[in-house]
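Inputs:
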Amino acid sequence: MRAGMQEGQADPGLYDFSPYRDRPPFSWPDGKKVAVWVSPNLEYYEIDPPANPHRKSWAKPHPDVVGYAHRDHANRVGHWRMADVMSKHGFPGSVSLSVALCQHHPEVVADANERGWEFFSHGIYNTRYSYGMDEAQERAIIEDSIRTVREATGQTIRGWLAPALTHTPRTLDLIAQYGLDYTCDLYHDDQPQRVNTASGDLISMPYSLEVNDHYGFFIYNMSPREYARTLIRQYERLAAEPSGTVMCIPLHSYLIGQPHRIGAFEEVLRHIAADGRAWITRSGDIADAWRAVHTGEPAA
Amino acid sequence: MTLDPSYLEYPRRALGYDHGLYPYSALPDRKPLAWPGSKSVATWIVVSLEWFPITPSDTPFRAPGHMQTAYPDYRHYTSREYGTRVGFYRLLDAFAKAGVKVSVAANGAIAQRYPSIIRDVAEAGHEVIAHSTDMNGTIASTLPVEDERALIRDSIAALCDVTGAAPRGWLSIARSQSFATPDLLVEAGIEYCCDWANDELPWAFANGLVNLPLNHELSDRQILNVQQQSVDSYAEQMLDAHDWLSTEAEAQGGARLLPLHLTPYIMGLPYRMDAFERLLAELAARPQTWFARGSDILDSFRSQM
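Outputs:
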């Protein structure tokens, strides 16, 4: 029997060691060197969520007006501004979705679906954390995610980014058991890698915290133009290395869709689209293309 | 481990918001607005004019910019006073030079302690809006509602005593409200607040109060103090925002709002003022700019509702 995460062990055993050097290069479709995917987080934060004993949601007593209103900007203004710029330059989205957005603001979800974007689950709300859930509870949010996205969009989710990046030791095994085939929660590589799960066939999809707009603006305190230059440097380096890399641009439209930021960001998309080395695509397509090349590899 | 079963229950998971304060509205679905003179970008400057007691209160929370060291914190007490005595007058002169009328969000304590400042503001044609009593006057749901009602009443009364007119607008300290605040503001005769930065155009609460979104992301505090960027970068970001909004307004029809939130002890420093004056001149030179006070924007918005 295959083993999943080794709970309580110093090495959780998520994947096997595989150094970057000497990996066989491979091409993405049409001979492209780097797969670029844009991942808008379409989220709903509750104004008065229940408390999770392991993590506080808002910094202030509810309502945390600045925190809530900032996120709300995404669903009223930011989404369309960001999405229009993406569509203009030929970038589809792969959406990290708070699935309750399908109930609260179906307009946003429908717009993304009509643009041909892919959806994966980012939990029910970004104010409901997985910490402390038992197995039945965690199964309930996975089943809810699959059902909710299917009803709202007709799509069957393939991926998972844990709500507010909160996990349990069984999350990866469970999503693999439900047939999901990629996780965005592991940051150990610039290429997809197989994940050790008790069943199923799960790969890690390179997402990014380092070039996430939230990190750019609030961890590294970059100006809009500095963030744009950072993305271009990230792209140029990955495109120059041996073929077969992945670059993800994770976004929140309440950040990147602000009027002082979106113009600089548009220049990044213009640059990548014009370069010619990028396969501009969605996360599920990257998983398929990677598997087509790496079918023979054992799932450890 | 297990969580209480209620953690997986979602009683407010339904169409629209999980609260009834205001209705949902997506910007692209709204009837386009137009500003006077066919200008596409209302450029709204709000200056916070604040008095920080050297004895800070943490109830319900300590205001941003408040005292930081052990008592007595001369360094922050006097630096904030510098903004009021010196920096604010630099800003007033800059506004006069550029021909800009602004909204000044003043603590009641400013009117009580320094009434000549409030008179200078009013005589220059700027608008005075209410901004709590002093910087110990923070609001959150943990503040008893009777205390919040009194705080709002006292803030407004202190300004009225000097200007002779009731302020139409309100800005909470740190934009922090309780669930009761919108109703208490209406009860006190306030017509608009600036606290909810969830949009880029005015909108109305369910109770009729209008919100003019004063985007905290575009504030001098956020960009210069929190994110530690230069004033040159700040000015570039404001111009980038203005350019984007005017282009968007032209492409999609309608009008946009660019809010600039200023703090005298942050922007009014000698080494920042030249860059800020150049920014004002560049904004004034753009044909799309409508420099407006909050009440001007409110009146225009209401006439189109």
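Remarks. The first strand of chain A starts at residue 34 and ends at 42. The two ends of chain A are 11 Å apart (CA to CA).
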